[in-house]
Amino acid sequence: MKILTSHEIAVILVEIGIIIGFSRFLGEIARRYRQPMVVGEILAGIILGPTFLCIITPDLESGLFHLSPNTLIVMEGLTTVAVALLLLVAGLEINLFSLWNQRKTAFLVSFLGIAFPFALGFGASSTFPGFFGHVSGSDSMIFAVFFGTAMSISALPVIAKTLMDMNLLKSDMGTLVMASAALNDLVGWLIFSIVVSLIAGQAGQVNNPYVTILLIILFTVFMLTVVRRVFRRILPWLERRTVWPGGILGFVFAFTMIGSAVTEQLGVHAVLGALLVGIAAGEAEHLTERTKDVITQFATNIFAPLFFAFIGLRINFAAYIDLPLIAAVFVIACTGKVVGCTLGAKWSGSSTRESLTIGFGMNSRGAMEIIISLLAFEYGLIGENLFVALVIMAVGTTMISGPVMGWLIHEKKPLKISMLLKHEGYVHNLKGATPRDIIRELANLAGREANLNPAMIFEEVWERERIIGTALGGGFAVPHARLTGIRTPTVVAGKSRDGVDFNAMDGAPVQVVFMILTPQHDMGAQLQILADIARIFTNPAARAAALKAENYRSFMNAIGLAPERSQQH
Amino acid sequence: MKILTSHEIAVILVEIGIIIGFSRFLGEIARRYRQPMVVGEILAGIILGPTFLCIITPDLESGLFHLSPNTLIVMEGLTTVAVALLLLVAGLEINLFSLWNQRKTAFLVSFLGIAFPFALGFGASSTFPGFFGHVSGSDSMIFAVFFGTAMSISALPVIAKTLMDMNLLKSDMGTLVMASAALNDLVGWLIFSIVVSLIAGQAGQVNNPYVTILLIILFTVFMLTVVRRVFRRILPWLERRTVWPGGILGFVFAFTMIGSAVTEQLGVHAVLGALLVGIAAGEAEHLTERTKDVITQFATNIFAPLFFAFIGLRINFAAYIDLPLIAAVFVIACTGKVVGCTLGAKWSGSSTRESLTIGFGMNSRGAMEIIISLLAFEYGLIGENLFVALVIMAVGTTMISGPVMGWLIHEKKPLKISMLLKHEGYVHNLKGATPRDIIRELANLAGREANLNPAMIFEEVWERERIIGTALGGGFAVPHARLTGIRTPTVVAGKSRDGVDFNAMDGAPVQVVFMILTPQHDMGAQLQILADIARIFTNPAARAAALKAENYRSFMNAIGLAPERSQQH
After folding, report:
1. What phi-psi label fits residue B57: left (phi over 0), alpha (psi between -120 and 50 degrees) or beta?
2. pLDDT tens per residue, range B446-500
3. Which H or E run contains A545?
4. Alpha carbon separation from B325 to A23, A220, A569, B136, B329 (Å, rounded)
5. Which B residues, 478 through 507, put their C-beta within 8 Å of a C-beta on chain A?
6. Which chain B residue shows the shortest CA-CA distance from A254?
7. What letter would DSSP give residue A136?
8. Partners of A492 in the beta sheet?
9. Residue numbers of A between 291 and 350 with CB closer than 8 Å to B
10. pLDDT for B542 beyond 70
11. Backbone angles phi and psi of B66, in degrees to 5
């Protein structure tokens, strides 16, 4: 009945405990230095793994992490579930509806953001296959296609996290970057799945790789049309009728496992199925932000560290560092992605500075690059050297993305909310009971302030709000729009005594609403005002005072409580 | 590098998906019929397992759930982690501080609640070892000790859930039942661990079982003193300094795995370590209710169904049904527990009806009984017949507990809030900013109403509040006390415009506070008033209207919005 021995169980448990604890520890340190936690998590694996422990004391290493076959099998099972959940979370972030709303700009940024790095990567690796570690004997075409794909992948969850940390996720630029990255991810994973089928075909594991490819495409279309429509019906029903959040959580988890099993059985990796379930389930109308948040907490806090630490555990990083290769991979990846996305953004109407910001935003590779590299490594498509180089590139691009974006945005003298919010633009008792009513009230106010048609303002802001809600959590919301009719930014604000449900991530009713109207061609203005609101919002004293303020004067005093930020942060 | 084949991975994923989805489905159906979800989850395992599928179509069963050794190993690893997390959650519910506050009554109820069923079980199984399935050759003493322990175990999480569903968790009786069950669980698991060491000693797996027993006791004491004190320092620090809730979640999870590994390595099962980590970490001062809630969601929605369904999957229930044995086990378990706890409650001053309610509350066995039975079964201590009988007893006692308690409580004509809350007892603008201040304000009001010393009321209610907070979630709180000085129940209520943080499970600030004062010797009065408040609180329209009410009249109208309950529910 029992297969594992007591000692094996103890080893598995202690190992999981150490991995998660130590990953968390380094992850929190990374966060303190404004770096994504994944940086610390991979580092934890490297330190616990052969790279370091081998050097210090081979005994400890072999005792703790040189595992018996049975414990290895358990760990492999756990990490398979972990990576499926990570892709589910990535899929949940992809909003096809929002993508469609921004199809003109998002498609351009996304297309050039894939095409440029892919072309560079494909060209370089097919010209110098030996340098990039292509093993002679295997198909160099498949290798080059993979390398191109690896260069063009992006990492939606990391990008979302970076934008959220900078309080740009809800800005126009944020939604554009998110939509482009979503499309990028979906296309990237499909190409990768096709690569995997081709490998399997060559290895004789499947009879005809083209049948597999056809099945993958059919399954993808099926998931994104039929299943997506079915989910749109049944998920809200489940959310109403079952215990919250357990019910919806259990069913989404079950669907994910089954979707993953289908793609695994089709001959590509389980991750594709999980990603597709995530996309089909994740649209804003179905799942509330809080439910998504619970699923994300599940996946990112327990399963993600296990997976990333395992990457470090598997390989002696120090032994496979190949500096020229790492440099080449890094340069190709950054050049291709930044240039491609910047051109795409520029051609769809952004200024040069904004386009560069978008380019660097899309450049971060994070978890997705690492997962794709690990799979390629497991399928025998790439060797240790290239694997290590790709992991370093993924971590490196993730680390530089935030700081460079911050530098690009905060260059100009920033706009301050304290300069923009007039006495006439503040209303103490918002009457509306829905976001729509609140936005209509503030649009009327803003119309008087800016000499514009309130109905037009309402239309623009409401349309923007519907793409992605602007609640910041903690009782704040920032509906906004860029308008052609105004030359300088206009800000109005109001307070709702009872609070209004804006479908905020934290579920808190929104009591303080800023409406931000900026000129169409000045994306920077909007970003700066949002950043200034973040200054207030992230200061507990200022936030509490703003929520309590009884009139314009005490409201402005509350804003004054938060220290002014230096230009760069 | 990869050990599992693609097909094995697909099988594991599809299996996890089907188990979780189907368990959830039956669990939700069970909930609809006011039964604990665990009933549906075990049923899912039985239906998916050999009991049913074998009969319908042997092929499907062998294809889906008759697994290759590798997939079985992965499943065993997963369920080990699952059961450790379940015990962590059970441990988190155990509050040593609250236990100490109620030591007189809780120890009596708990002691008799263990001693009676243990004595009955021990006596019956040592007198008729053959009937109870004792295998001749093994030590009949150890078998009888186990059987006694199995009879005396209780199930804190299920009891907490039952009390919560009846809105009695925060009542005096609820806290007493919880404290008694906590002590019961801790003692039960320690005895079981000693039984396991004795078995291991006889099997020659450990050199000296008494050394193991000594180590277990030392480890338990160490965890409940030193580690508990260390946790009290570092957990609040972690909660402040790390990302919430990921940081605290990651560390508690890591500690749990390591604690489990220690007890597993000591020679008893991993569950003891997880339980002790839970107790050490779970005290109210350290972890907020919301953090506990996230951990509980983790454990109960994904891991618990996996574990329970696996019990059904392991064994053909139909083949091992032994009706006389099931009846005997059921009768011994219920008689011992109900009589023991009822006497304990009676002797510590409760009325007969209240004592019986406590007795039936403690009688539900739920998950803990099933876990202990499964472990005994795996250690070869009991056979299939007794295992099936114990599982059925666990499910049966869990099913009857809620309905019987409800019937016992709702027998008398219930007290209604609408009869008790006077105009003079309602204050529209509570000024306090902390629970302490609010309770002082309402105590002053109640003092005038009931002609009692407000300071004494405050002392009693505040002391009660400190044991376990009375926030119900959704903005409601019900501080209460039983007083010797009053003859009839007194209820006062107030509203706080800005809300006050009562450390509610849902984190919502409390806006509506009812203070309930009832005579010392009439426990039923308090329960009925709480049940009547639950009627308002669980009706969305009434709750919203109560939160919005601007004066006594509109507040009473809000209460009228919720339909009166029939006497039994």
Report:
1. beta
2. 888 877 778 888 888 988 888 788 888 888 899 999 887 777 788 999 998 888 8
3. helix A540-548
4. 50, 54, 71, 17, 6
5. 498
6. B17
7. B
8. A515
9. 294, 297-298, 300-302, 305, 314
10. yes
11. -95, 100
Query: What's A319's DSSP letter?
Result: G
On whether the CB atoms of residues B395 and B42 are closer than 8 A, the answer is yes
B242, two tokens: 């790390």
Tell me the β-bridge partners of A427: A494
CB A410 within 8 A of CB A347: no
Mean confidence (pLDDT) of chain B: 82
B270: nearest CB among A2, A13, A37: A13
At a CB cut-off of 8 Å and minimum separation 6, what does B280 contact?
A: B91, B223, B224, B227, B228, B231
* Pairwise CA distance, residues B216 & B544, whole Å: 52
pLDDT tens readout for residues A530-555: 888 887 777 888 888 888 888 888 88
With a CB cutoff of 8 Å and minimum separation 6, the contacts of A207 are none
Distance separating alpha carbons of residues A363 and A357, to the nearest angstrom:
10
CB-based contacts of B71-75 (< 8 A; 24+ apart in sequence): B71/B4, B71/B8, B71/B11, B71/B12, B71/B15, B72/A3, B73/A3, B73/A4, B73/A70, B73/A73, B73/A74, B73/A77, B74/A73, B74/A74, B74/A76, B74/A77, B74/A78, B74/B4, B74/B12, B75/A77, B75/B12, B75/B15, B75/B310
Q: For residue A59, which amino acid is it?
A: D
Element (H, E) at A558: helix A552-561
The verdict on a CB contact (< 8 Å) between B258 and A9 is no
Other residues' Cβ atoms within 10 Å of the Cβ of residue B515:
26
Domains of chain B: 69-409 (1.20.1530.20), 417-561 (3.40.930.10)
Quote the ipTM score.
0.71
Angle between helices B172-202 and B270-281 (to 10 degrees): 150
Lowest-pLDDT range, A2-16, A327-341, B162-176? B162-176
Cα-based angle B138, B80, B362 (whole degrees, multiple of 5): 75
How far CA A149 is from CA of A145, A190, A359, A365, A385, in Å, comes to 6, 10, 18, 12, 18
What DSSP element (H or E) covers A258?
helix A246-266
B115-130 residue pLDDT tens:
999 999 999 999 988 8
pLDDT score, position B288: 65
Q: List the single residue in A10, A80, A294 with the smallest CB-CB distance to B265.
A: A10
Assign B65 a pLDDT band (cuts: 50, 70, 90). low
- Residues B447 and B453 sit within 8 Å (Cβ to Cβ): yes
Q: How far is A34 from chain B (nearest CA, A)?
A: 12
Exposed/middle/buried for residue A416 (C-beta within 10 Å: 0-12, 13-18, 19+):
middle
Burial of residue B388 (number of CB atoms within 10 Å: 0-12, 13-18, 19+): buried
Residue B138: strand, helix, or coil:
strand
Would strands A476-477 and A510-519 be described as parallel, antiparallel, or unpaired? parallel
Helix B156-165 to helix B352-363 angle (10° resolution) is 130
- Partners of A109 in the β-ladder: none
Extract the tokens encoding A76.
Answer: 């492999």
pLDDT of residue A63: 47
Question: How far is CA B10 from each of CA A57, A86, A267, A553, B165, rounded to the nearest angstrom?
Answer: 38, 17, 10, 63, 39
Please name the residue that has the structure tokens 């009719």: A485
Check: CB of residue A378 under 8 Å from CB of residue B2. yes
- The amino acid occupying position A346 is K
Phi/psi of residue A412, each to 5°? -70, 160
Q: Which residues from chain B sit within 8 angstroms of residue A73, using beta carbons?
A: 3-4, 70, 73-74, 77
